[in-house]
Amino acid sequence: MRVVPVELGDRAYEVRIAPGLLEQAGKQLQPFIRGGRLVVVSDEQVWAAQGARLTEALDGVDVNPVLVAAGEGSKSFTVLADLMDRLLALEIERSEHIVAFGGGVIGDLTGFASAILKRGCGFVQVPTTLLSHVDSSVGGKTGINVAAGKNLVGAFHQPSLVLIDPEVLDTLDARQVRAGYAEIAKYGLIEDADFFVWLEANGHAVIEGDLEARCYAIEKAVAGKARIVAADERETGDKRALLNLGHTFGHALEAETGYSERLLHGEAVALGCVQAMTFSAERRLCSADDAERTRAHFAAVGLPTSLAEAGITASGEVLTRHMASDKKKAGGKVAFILSRGIGQAYVDRTVDMADVAAFLDRNG
Ligand SMILES: NC(=O)c1ccc[n+]([C@@H]2O[C@H](COP(=O)([O-])OP(=O)(O)OC[C@H]3O[C@@H](n4cnc5c(N)ncnc54)[C@H](O)[C@@H]3O)[C@@H](O)[C@H]2O)c1
Ligand SMILES: O=C(O)C(=O)C[C@@H](O)[C@H](O)[C@H](O)COP(=O)(O)O
Ligand SMILES: [Zn+2]
């Protein structure tokens, strides 16, 4: 088993990664079982595909599944309110841990519900998508989307344990796997140029399900994220903001497409990373070659790299309006994660929104 520690003092926890780990859920989750039961929040699709594996591994435990609809729409006040009522109806106690069994939507929603239920109870992440393996299950960002934008209501609330079994990805469809891959490549672009080179050679293997390549890439991305989170848990400095590479652009694209299946979060991040690198190249911060390598790699693994490809016709002015609600805004200025080269992302607070709008109009 690969174990990545997330060093956060009294909120420290482990990320355990191993094929077949789900079969050991009884042993792994033992410390969190209270009164013989475990409350598990999941979505209907995950539960249909993987629920039996979890409940069989928890033989003898009274598993209480609480299911929500699959998809980004469940990161909403309506679903959160209903979930809270259902958790309270189970007479859940503050000393209990809730298990988030699903992708990033379930992790973000359940994590937020745990943060506010009875003023905070514990939770454990058992992620089931590639995206949630490499990114959303680690670091404690939880929350929901609201009319004003993506993840604008939420809390930092760390899980007590993360259990990653790459074999759960066997039932995940190929488009979702590719979307999750974008957050792996993002990590290489941020601060690990050698890892990006490795991905250029092995990205297909990661996507196609080579277990060794997948485990290596998952561990690498998780370890990178854990290091950044340990250094800047609440994004008060510029360190954690780097994990937002591609997201200022990407979240605007998700807003424009109504958080719908038209553009998955990971696809928006891929497109956003290409835009951030191309914008950086136009400003001569990084080379045109690095921007092209980024575009070519995402294209090679089947991710969208242009607005036209994603079917987005909105003007730069409309897209930058979405960016105005970005959480990285300070003193009225939106911060952008730009790049001095592959593996050299940095936070830039000098960007003029009119320049971004004109860039988007030129680079449809
Ligand atoms: N908190 C963070 O740090 C963080 C980081 C990155 C992304 N996110 C958030 O994560 C969300 C995206 O997460 P996601 O890409 O995992 O999407 P998701 O949770 O919507 O899952 C994608 C789809 O796959 C299905 N699914 C999940 N696991 C499956 C499995 N093993 N077999 C079959 N079907 C399965 C789900 O039912 C869903 O329909 C976004 O809301 C994004 O904002 C959060
Ligand atoms: O963990 C982080 O920090 C990230 O930025 C990871 C991102 O991949 C993730 O999508 C996150 O939810 C975006 O953060 P937000 O603060 O912009 O909502
Ligand atoms: Zn993301």
UniProtKB/TrEMBL annotation:
Zn(2+) binds at E183, H247, H265. GO terms for biological process: amino acid biosynthetic process; aromatic amino acid family biosynthetic process; chorismate biosynthetic process. InterPro entries: Dehydroquinate_synthase (IPR050071), DHQ_synth_AroB (IPR016037), DHQ_synth_fam (IPR030963), DHQS/DOIS_N (IPR030960), DHQS_C (IPR056179). Residues 67-178 form the 3-dehydroquinate synthase N-terminal domain. It comes from the Bacteria. Keywords: Amino-acid biosynthesis, Aromatic amino acid biosynthesis, Cobalt, Cytoplasm, Lyase, Metal-binding, NAD, Nucleotide-binding, Zinc. NAD(+) binds at G104, V105, I106, G107, D108, T128, T129, K141, K150. Pathway: Metabolic intermediate biosynthesis; chorismate biosynthesis; chorismate from D-erythrose 4-phosphate and phosphoenolpyruvate: step 2/7. Residues 180-329 form the 3-dehydroquinate synthase C-terminal domain. Belongs to the sugar phosphate cyclases superfamily. Dehydroquinate synthase family. This is 3-dehydroquinate synthase. Its main location: cytoplasm. Its EC number is 4.2.3.4.
